[in-house]
Design brief:
- The complex is a heterodimer of chains A (68) and B (471).
- Chain A is an all-alpha fold and 68 residues long.
- Chain A has helices at 10-19, 26-43, 58-66.
- The termini of chain A are far apart.
- Chain B has 471 residues and is an alpha/beta fold.
- In chain B, 38% of the residues lie in helices and 13% in strands.
- Chain B is built from 15 helices and 11 strands.
- Chain B has helices at 11-19, 25-43, 51-66, 109-116, 159-166, 183-189, 223-233, 277-292, 305-330, 337-345, 351-359, 361-371, 401-408, 413-418, 447-460, and strands at residues 46-49, 78-82, 120-125, 172-176, 192-195, 216-220, 263-267, 296-300, 377-381, 422-429, 435-441.
- In chain B, strands 4-6-5-10-11-9-7-8 form an 8-stranded mixed sheet, with helices on both faces. Chain B has a 3-stranded mixed sheet with strand order 1-3-2.
- Chain B starts with 10 loop residues before the first helix and ends in an 11-residue tail after the last helix.
- The chains are: A mainly alpha (68), B alpha/beta (471).
- At the A-B interface, helix 1, helix 2 and helix 3 of A face helix 9, helix 10, helix 11, helix 12 and helix 13 of B.
Chain lengths: 68, 471
C-alpha cells in the first residue's frame, strides 16, 4: 500500500488480521480487499493532507460553534 | 382496519385521548396487541410480544389516572422499541444469536426517559443482526416484511421499527441510525423517522456499533410525534458524557410554525444522480409543495459527498470490528454470513487511516456548513430506489454484496459522517404503491428546523396518514 490511493492487498490484509489476532484465510482476505477497497480509493484524496496542528476534537468544536 | 381502532391514532392523538379519558390505556394497548396478533405472522416485526405484562401496565396507568396521577406526556401510551435498547432484567437479543439470552443489567437512558414520561412496554422489535445491515434481512430470526408489499424489504437496521409503525402495531418505536438505519426503514415503510445530531440523545444502555456514528432516534407516523419523543429523550446524561451538556430543546413548539420565507436547498449533484424515476418525480413534487407553502427552493453545491461516504465506511468498519473482536475470535460461526463479512472488513484498515477519518470530520463539517450557509435545510432522497424485494436483496456474503449495500445507503452515510440531524418523511409512492421518503438535513443540534419543515409539509399533504392495506 505504498500509494495512498491503493487499497490494501489480500496478502497485506492477511498479515494485518494476524497481527490483530483475528486471523483470516487468504480467501477471506481477498473478499475483504474487494469489499473495502473502494472506500480506500474514495478517501485517498484526503489521506495525508490534513494540517499538522488540527485539533483532535475539532469535530465537536465545529458542532458547538455553529449550534444555537 | 376500522376508523375506530385506537391503534390508528398518532402518538400525540392517543396521548391526548388517554389523558382526557376518551379512551383508556388498556383500550389503546389492546388495540395494538390485536393488530400484532393479526399481522405479526406476516410481518415478523416483533421480536418479543409481552401481552399480559403490557395489559397489566396499562391497567396500572389507568388506575393512576383515575386517582388524578399522571407520569408525564406519554402516560399510558404503549410502545415497543428496537431490541437493542437495554431494560434491566429484560432480554435484549440485538437481533443476534450471540445475545439471544442476554439479560440487561441496566436500563438505557432513552427508554428510561420515555418510561418516565409514562409509556407502557408492548415487547421488543426485530432488527438487523447487531444493527449491521440496511435491508431488514436477519439470518437468525428471518426477514422483516414491508407491510405495503410483504415480498419487499423494510430497510434496516431498524427493520421491525419501520414495519411495526407503518402497520400500526405500535404508536412509535425507537430506532438507531449509524449509516441510515432509521431513515432507510422510514423511507421504505412510509413513516417519519428522525436521525438526531450526534450528541443530542444519550446512547447509554444502547447496543453500540460505532461510537463515532451511532445515534438514537424515533420512528413514528408524524414529524410532530418525532419532535415529542426526541424532546423527551434529549439532554445531557452523566451516563454518556458524549451527550451535549445542555437542556433538552423545545422541539414541539416549532412544529406549529409555518415555513413561509424559509430557504431549502436541493443538491445539484450526487443526491440527484442515477435516481429511480419515481424517486425523482417525488423529489420534484415535494419541491413544488414546499414552494406553495412559501419556501424558496434553490440548488446547493455540496462538497464531494463520495469522500464522506468513503470516510464513513472506513470509520464504521474499524469501530464495529473493535466492538466485536472477542466474538469474531471465539464465535465466528454464530454470526450471520453477511454480518461477519462486514465485520471482517474492519481488519483491513490501518490505525493511521482510521485516525485520519476521525481527524477529517471537523474540516468536512465546516466545509458542509459553509456550503449550506444560504439555506435553512437541505432536501434529498433517502435512497435512490424504493424498497427492493427481499429475494433480490438477499445478498448474504456473495461477491459484490458490499457494493449493493453501499448503493442503498449512499445518500445516508455522508450525513452520519457529518453527524447532522435528518428527518425522513413520507413524500409519495411509486407506481407499484411502495412508499418513497425524502430526508430534510439540518445543521448540528437544529432538529427543530427540520421538524418544523416536516410538520408543515405534513399539514399540506396526506402521505403520512396513509396506512398499508393488511387484511
Amino acid at each position: 500500500m505504498s500509494d495512498p490511493a491503493e487499497a490494501p492487498t489480500a496478502d497485506e490484509i492477511e498479515k494485518i488480521a494476524g497481527v490483530a489476532r483475528v486471523p483470516v484465510t487468504n480467501g477471506v482476505a481477498q473478499r475483504i480487499a474487494a469489499s473495502i477497497g473502494p472506500a480506500f480509493v474514495g478517501f485517498a484524496p484526503m489521506s495525508g493532507t490534513l494540517p499538522f496542528d488540527l485539533e483532535p476534537a475539532n469535530f465537536v468544536s465545529v458542532q458547538n460553534k455553529t449550534a444555537k | 382496519m376500522t376508523a375506530t381502532e385506537p391503534a390508528l391514532l398518532s402518538v400525540t392523538e392517543v396521548a391526548a385521548a388517554i389523558a382526557s379519558k376518551k379512551i383508556s390505556s388498556r383500550e389503546a394497548t389492546q388495540s395494538c396487541l390485536d393488530r400484532v396478533a393479526r399481522f405479526q405472522p406476516r410481518l415478523n416485526a416483533y421480536m418479543a410480544i409481552e401481552a399480559d405484562a403490557a395489559l397489566a401496565a396499562a391497567d396500572a396507568a389507568d388506575k393512576e389516572l383515575a386517582q388524578g396521577k399522571t407520569r408525564g406526556p406519554l402516560h399510558g401510551v404503549p410502545m415497543a422499541h428496537k431490541d437493542m435498547y437495554y431494560e434491566a432484567g429484560k432480554v435484549s437479543t440485538c437481533g443476534s444469536k450471540i445475545r439471544k439470552d442476554f439479560v440487561a443489567a441496566t436500563t438505557s437512558t432513552a427508554i428510561a426517559r420515555l418510561q418516565n414520561a409514562g409509556t407502557v412496554r408492548l415487547g421488543t422489535l426485530q432488527m438487523s443482526e447487531f444493527a449491521y445491515g440496511p435491508t431488514g434481512h436477519n439470518a437468525h430470526y428471518g426477514a422483516v416484511h414491508n407491510p405495503w408489499h410483504v415480498d419487499h424489504v423494510t430497510g434496516g437496521s431498524s427493520s421491525g421499527s419501520g414495519s411495526a409503525v407503518a402497520a400500526r402495531l405500535t404508536f412509535a418505536a425507537l430506532g438507531s441510525d449509524t449509516g441510515g438505519s432509521i431513515r432507510m426503514p422510514a423511507h421504505f415503510c412510509g413513516v417519519s423517522g428522525l436521525k438526531t445530531t450526534v450528541g443530542l440523545v444519550s446512547r447509554a444502555g444502547a447496543m453500540p456499533l460505532s461510537q463515532s456514528l451511532d445515534t438514537v432516534g424515533p420512528l413514528a407516523r408524524t414529524a410532530v410525534d418525532c419532535a415529542l419523543l426526541t424532546q423527551l429523550m434529549a439532554g445531557g446524561d452523566a451516563a454518556d458524557p458524549t451527550t451535549r451538556n445542555a437542556p433538552a430543546p423545545d422541539l414541539v413548539s416549532p412544529t406549529k410554525e409555518n415555513i413561509k420565507g424559509l430557504r431549502i436547498g436541493i443538491p445539484s449533484a450526487f443526491y440527484v444522480d442515477h435516481l429511480d424515476s419515481d424517486v425523482a418525480r417525488v423529489l420534484d413534487e415535494t419541491a413544488k409543495t414546499l414552494a406553495s407553502e412559501g419556501v424558496t427552493v434553490v440548488r446547493v453545491t455540496l462538497p464531494d459527498q463520495s469522500r464522506l461516504t468513503a470516510a464513513s465506511q472506513l470509520l464504521l468498519a474499524v469501530e464495529a470490528a473493535a466492538f466485536h473482536k472477542k466474538w469474531m475470535i471465539e464465535r465466528p460461526g454464530d454470526y450471520g454470513p453477511q454480518v461477519l463479512m462486514r465485520l471482517q472488513n474492519g481488519l483491513a484498515v490501518p490505525a493511521i487511516t482510521y485516525l485520519e477519518t476521525l481527524r477529517w470530520r471537523g474540516p468536512a463539517l465546516a466545509a458542509h456548513l459553509e456550503a449550506v450557509s444560504g439555506v435553512d435545510a437541505v432536501l434529498a432522497p433517502v435512497a435512490p430506489v424504493p424498497a427492493p424485494t427481499i429475494a433480490d436483496s438477499d445478498i448474504g456474503n456473495k461477491t459484490g454484496a458490499e457494493a449493493v449495500i453501499q448503493n442503498l445507503t449512499r445518500f445516508t452515510r455522508p450525513i452520519n459522517y457529518l453527524g447532522l440531524p435528518a428527518l425522513a418523511i413520507p413524500a409519495g409512492f411509486s407506481a407499484r404503491g411502495l412508499p418513497i421518503g425524502l430526508q430534510l438535513i439540518g445543521r448540528p443540534f437544529e432538529e427543530a428546523m427540520v421538524l418544523r419543515i416536516g410538520a408543515a409539509f405534513q399539514r399540506a399533504t396526506d402521505f403520512h396518514t396513509r396506512a398499508p392495506r393488511l387484511s
